[in-house]
Amino acid sequence: MKKYEQIRRKLLNRRDEIEGRLNKVDQDILHTNGAPNPDSGEQAIERENDDVLEALGGIARSELEKINIALERMERNEFGICTLCKKAISAERLKAIPYAERCIKCADKDVEDTF
Predict the structure, then answer these.
(1) d(CA 103, CA 115)
(2) Residue-wise pLDDT tens digits, 22-79
(3) N or C terminus: fewer CB in 10 A for the chain?
């Protein structure tokens, strides 16, 4: 586990950042900072903004899920091992994508298989 302590800290910091952002997004969507604008044109803009916030929230939730899975894999001493071929994931890949579950070869193969 000490081998990945720096990555673990990075994941924990990122998780905290995302959770804070999601809290803010949820507050904005629920309009906890005040009632919606009574002007119908402004309400339409607010609804469009809510749609954008929901999309951004979905992206953030997806990343948060990946981070939590990576942290769980660390706890089980499975982090850094490809879930497909069971070989080590390169340090460069983990540095770039700290929640990567697959080595570059398996990730590339997966992309090729979708085309």
Answers:
(1) 19
(2) 998 888 777 665 666 666 666 677 777 778 888 888 999 999 999 999 999 999 999 9
(3) C
DSSP code at position 48: H
Q: Which helix (H) or strand (E) holds 101?
A: none
- Give dist(CA 6, CA 2) in Å, integer: 8
Domain ranges, ordered by start, for the chain: 1-79, 80-115
Q: What is the pTM of this model?
A: 0.77
Whose CA is closest to 94, among 115, 55, 66, 114?
Answer: 66
Q: 77 to each of 2, 35, 102, 103, how far by Cα in Å?
A: 11, 48, 15, 16
